């Protein structure tokens, strides 16, 4: 899971819910995004600056008291975990790749995510080669 943490800013993609059944869609979103007790990420209304002007949006913010919150880690340590981790939605490496690809489609390039993606790919390749040799 990727969640916002306190401090700094980021560029991203804001999705607009379809016009029908906002409440049902928000409930479904919350069920998908909040899957721990206490949650690792919590919903929070944030202010966005967009090309079309300011917006309020629902975002998921890292909760330091959540069991899976790791705080600030070296990118190499993050990559080590992502290269090996999987959850009920699939592998963390695939989630990272899809996130980076979607941002790239929108013209957003986050240097840290790109660096982590490169490190994860290198670790997966090294692990695959080690398995072939072993």
Q: What percent of the residues sit in helical stretches (DSSP H or I)?
A: 40-55%
Counted up, domains total: 2
Mean pLDDT comes to 88
Structural class: alpha+beta
Radius of gyration: 17 Å
Strand order, largest beta sheet = 1-2
**What's the multimeric state?**
single chain
Low-confidence spans: pLDDT under 50, at least 5 residues? none
SS strand fraction? 15-25%
The shape, in one word, is globular
**Describe the biggest sheet?**
2 strands, antiparallel
Number of helices: 4
- Work out the number of β strands: 4
In N-to-C order, the SSE pattern is HEEHEEHH
First-last Cα distance: 32 Å
Describe the overall structure.
The structure is a single chain. The strands form 2 sheets. Strands 1-2 form a two-stranded antiparallel sheet. It has a two-stranded antiparallel sheet with strand order 3-4. The chain starts with 21 loop residues before the first helix and ends with a helix. Helix content is 44%, strand content 18%. The chain is α+β, with helices and mostly antiparallel strands and 134 residues long. The radius of gyration is 17 Å and the shape is globular. Strand 1 (41-50) and strand 2 form a beta hairpin.
């Amino acid at each position: 899971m990727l969640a916002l943490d306190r401090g700094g800013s980021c560029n991203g993609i804001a999705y607009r819910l379809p016009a029908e059944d906002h409440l049902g869609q928000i409930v479904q979103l919350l069920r998908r995004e909040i899957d721990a007790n206490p949650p690792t990420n919590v919903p929070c209304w944030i202010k966005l600056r967009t090309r079309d002007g300011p917006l309020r949006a629902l975002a998921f913010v890292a909760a330091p008291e959540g069991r899976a919150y790791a705080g600030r880690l070296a990118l190499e340590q993050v990559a080590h975990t992502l290269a090996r981790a999987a959850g009920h939605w699939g592998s963390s490496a695939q989630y990272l790749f899809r996130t980076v690809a979607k941002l790239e489609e929108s013209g957003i390039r986050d240097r840290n995510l790109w660096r982590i993606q490169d490190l994860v790919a290198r670790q997966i390749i090294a692990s695959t080669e080690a398995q072939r040799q072993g």
